[in-house]
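Milestone M4 deliverable, item 7.
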Amino acid sequence: MSSPANAWQSFLISQGAAFNALGEAAFPATSASAQLFDLSSQGLIAISGADSQTFLQGQVTNDIKLLAQGAQFNGYCTPKGRLLALFFSFIIDDVIYLQCPRDLIPDLVKRLRMYVLRSKVLVEDASERLVALGLASDTLATTMEALPATPYRQAQTPYGTLIRLADTGVQQRALLIAASEQAQASWQALSATFTPSSTSQWEALEIQAGIPQVYAATKEQFVPQMVNLDALNGINFKKGCYTGQEIVARTHYLGKVKRRTLLAQLTSEHAPQPGDVLQDAQQQEAGQLVRVAPAAGNTWWVLAECRLEAKEAGTISWQGQALTFQELPYVLS
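Output delivered:
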């Protein structure tokens, strides 16, 4: 018997998709203004049980008690304050879900279970139970009448749970979480209005929205502020203790953060990768790439973590190619 994930991929292949080694779907290029994306390369961890909120409060950077008001970003750190993962977190039917790259999930589930002890908490890989889809359109609020008015609020629809995300320019965006048995019907219904598009195009929208990510190649490389988690309201400095809290708080209260993640483009025939080193004008290490997605031609959208001093002093480059910096859609303190 095939798994739900295999059945979902088989279904999308029947709809014209091809998949790369990362499990990302590719569809024929489109310039349609209303687009539908497969996000099943992102997995989900489910945290349930009577003590789930208390348990998770001691593990992540944000205030889990505020999840009842809407979805939130969370960092999951080592005791030294270095990020093991970035989670997009939300609640559906009293279960807390943590979304992150699927290949990280087995190790994260194992690590989280180590801290459950006698708590009434169940930590599970829910990536087979649920399917994540992305929606983007400059008229999304009109097309999806249930779309919440503000980012990170959610609503129930016939297609699944709809969570509004931050806009990217004129593009309004949402995450749709559907049960695996419902996902095919939801995709077919939505594709009457939204054009199926490649996961890489969604990645480009995420980058333009300034949303970072942690991958296997960049685990334990960043303190949360280095990837702007504070600017994304992903750190609560009043919630109390959690793993790595002392380092994160010290970085905050000592004042100016010296390394930040910035939005940029670069041109290259070769694909840059998260974790690739960046150089300053003196060819010294200046930082690294956080997130990458193709743009038109041989250009790439990137989020680049770098020393602010090095950027102010001159060019930041990747393999000899200068980065062209753009304005982030939010303010860095």
